[in-house]
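Quick entry between incubations.
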Amino acid sequence: MGDSLITIVAIFLAAILMFVFPLMAMADRSDDVSTLAVQTATTDFVDKVRTTGKLTLDDYDKYVSTISSTGNAFDVDIELQILDENPGVKTTQTEMTKIGENLYYNKYTNQVETELQAKGRISLKEGDRISVTTKNTNQTISQILKNFFYQIAGNETYNIVAQHGGIVTVNGAK
Amino acid sequence: MKIQYLAVLFIIIILPIYLVISYYVNAQIKTVNAQELYDSKLVTATYDSVRSFQLNTINNKYSSVSDSKIRDIEAAISSFFNSLGTELGATGYSREDLSTFIPAILYSMYDGYYVYGKYYDEGIPIEYDEQGKVTKSGDYRIGLKPYVYYSCRYKEGSSSDFVVNYTLDNTITVYGKVNGDEVASTGALVKIGDVEVNSTDIQPYSFLTSTGKKEERSYAKHSKYKQIDINPEILSEKLVLIEDLDGDGDQDITVNNYEYIVHNDQKIYVDKKDGDVAKYDLNEYIYYDGNGNQYPGIKCFVNYRNKKQYLTDLETMAFINEMVYEDVGGDGHTHLHSNSACQYYYDAYKFSVWVNDNLGNITQADAKDLEGNTITDFETNTGSEKIFRLSDNKNDPMLESSTFNQQRINVIKKSIKSNLAAEMANFGAKNGYEYRMPELTEEDWDKIVNDMCVTTFMQGMSIGMKYYNNYCVVPNDKNKEVVTLDSIYIIESTNDNIIDSNDEVHYAGCEELVNSTKTMMGYRNIDFERQTVVTSDDNNYYFYPHDNTKSYNCMVNAKNQIELESIITGEKLEYDIDQEMMVKKGSIGYNLRKTYLTALAREKYDLYRTNGYFGVPD
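Done. Structure below.
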């Protein structure tokens, strides 16, 4: 009786050691590689927009397909901050010793996507800012395995995240 | 029991494999992360360098003079290294330390470029003897190398052996032997069939010098380019003056609109009295025309340190007098007119006719190097197309697709590539890393050959599994060096036909302007930037030469413009999403074309040129 109990425990232990442990380790590695791929794609995408001043539907589609090719589903958040220097001009018109504040007004993902679908591209000028954040929305294998052992509660659990942003250096409206 | 042994054995085998894989993947991740980080930081630092150059030149009246330009560039280089040092978290590093990773920085300008890199300076002392005298000198030093022009030598037979200096637009300088004669001449090139100049368009005038000698001059008062009438225009801008107006001993700051023209590379403003241009009384300043009639001088001045410096030389007085008159159907007052646009097309026509007649048979095969061998490694082969045949309908130098433009791009690329490659190889192998010139993308070359740019190269930093090697090109489109097609902004009046501060300014390619019939006026983009005046008591005053607000429809919310070349040709091209190319869709309104072509010609003509041999050879 004691013998068979120990046998079962031994088999169980062996199964965990031989299958689950390497699986978890590889799943973690695969998540790392996915994060790297997504981070690279995000940085390339944002830097391209920064150095050309144009956000094209073509580039956006390529970006989305690159990150989807890692096998996960992603949520992309784009935020554009458009510079408005007119308040500065108006302030200096009235009072020569003052430099007016420049305004930034924001455009978010939905507006950006609608405009891209309608016109094919969005042009930005020097001084505008772009920032892109990508998070995964599905559960990766590593998350599933981890959840088996301990639950992580909450909606905002994500494994793969990439973020990049910067200022646009070139006038794209040409 | 055996199964536990198997399991433990399995783990003993797998664990090292797993550790090695893990280490390798982590190292790759670190490398790629470091690469991206450095890429971003390089872009930011390069942009900071461009921005500091812009700010320095916009506020500097003498920024086109070469000494001042070199100072501005050195300041921009300092900005770059400071920014890079801050970005890399290495603020303790001096410029020399960071310099080992920056083999070259390229500042490409209007008619040539500067390279910041390593060079051998024979004057640096290395060894001294006992008395302190220098016995050995010569060492490598890092600094700004001499200016290199975008030039190409052409040799046709034995009668023509000359050099052409190209620029970022359609202006060239030709010097050397052409058809047996020595020539040195600068001018803009246009397609000959596009310009119509009649003899009635040239107005002669004359004046007597102080010694009584009669000087005869002439100027263009009308021309026609691509069937658009080019007429003189009235230019005005805001100017800040620091003067003691009310006599109480302290300096008053005033900002007012003044009409101006550019003559002899100076911006000359005029005073106004009762709505008309102010003139001196006859007992103050007068000048005599060629027939001995006397005229009162016009009160004209230049801006010298924000004070009026009046000009009273006879040549300027005579020219300005020709330019001050009342418009037919105008407001009943005399105004100062600028004929720069008419003069640009007239001079370009004369120069283009000379180039077409004398250099019209030159092809790419005539391009030779120093030893006289044919240059064969240009990027685009233009074959047997005549580069300077300006009577050919397909060769319009103002358009990108012409043979002239192709050759211009070839020469610029070849010059920059060969110089940079030599510079990088010269930089020397360090720690087993050899510096090499990377391949620039077509998009980046496009920026360099059409605009002033700053290009930085960063190589040799160890980032995990490899060495970093990348570059960054940032164009500088707000500068005083070059007027490109997109340097012109257009102010559109509201319905009152007068251009003033209440009107909005648009990009030249804005959709709203295409068929607009309202009054429009074009100025350079840098005239809409804020300028600073610092008084002697260290107060800052800010003003805009043109303080129009930017249109929300095209400038603030940067929208697609129409192709600027279509304003020149008159055919509207639009991007078709389905065909994924530009297709013809209508024509451009006469009003916009006239405003744009006049403004473009006027600004190009008024540019300060440091090295120009103006005038058509005889």
